[in-house]
Amino acid sequence: METRIKICGITNAADAKVAVRAGADALGFIFYEKSPRAVTIKAAAEISEGIPGSLLRVGVFVNAAEEEVRQAMAECALTMLQFHGDETPDFCGQFGLMTMKAFRVRDADSVKAMADYRTDAWLLDAWSSATLGGSGETFNWDLAVEAKRFGRPIFLAGGLTPENVGEAIRKVRPFGVDVSSGVELAPGMKDAEKVRAFVTAARAGGR
């Protein structure tokens, strides 16, 4: 099965179009005001209108209120919810939409915590003391291989670039890969050439 490709941190329509044309399978909108890639619900809704219906629209939340999540679902036509904070399993499971819980991986104990979350998928990101995501740092991919044994689809994130995504896919064989900072000119601004190169390298790595 072909590895799904998610381009996260979309903040404008031009970057969304670049990702779509490059062949991405999913776009991520970060509804977390402290992120340098934050987007408002209104802006994400406008961007979403120009995205083909076949693409996953993923809303990324960090300890958001239930009302905010539901508003984004309704206005942005989200098809998946990604929770990147301290959300409980019950909170993640209440929305009637596909869900993905993100885990910041530092060591083997980070992997053990995943079993409590029966979300549709798990996203594994690198642990960083400075940020909750988008750090540009990788982690030990052997831990991602270990996490697959828990029986949930894995999205691999953390420091992926056009140069290393092929290797990552060959080693981990994840359900999907997630990139943000690795294809940017600056936080929240994608580099079209890097986006295209990332998708090409990911497709090649999955063969």
Notes on the structure:
This protein has 207 residues and is α/β, with parallel strands linked by helices. The chain has a single domain, classed as TIM Barrel (Alpha-Beta Barrel). The chain has eight helices and ten strands. It has an eight-stranded parallel beta barrel with strand order 1-2-3-4-5-6-7-8, surrounded by five helices. Strands 9-10 form a two-stranded antiparallel ribbon. The longest helix is centred in the last third of the chain and has 14 residues. It is globular and about 40 Å long. The chain starts with a strand and ends with a helix. The mean pLDDT is 92.
Topology (SSEs and partners):
Elements (H helix, E strand, L loop, with lengths): L3 E4 L5 H10 L3 E5 L10 H9 L6 E6 L4 H11 L3 E4 L5 H4 L5 E8 L2 H5 L8 E6 L14 H7 L6 E3 L8 H8 L3 E4 L4 E3 L2 E2 L1 H14 L2
Parallel strand pairs: 1-2, 1-8, 2-3, 3-4, 4-5, 5-6, 6-7, 7-8
Antiparallel strand pairs: 9-10
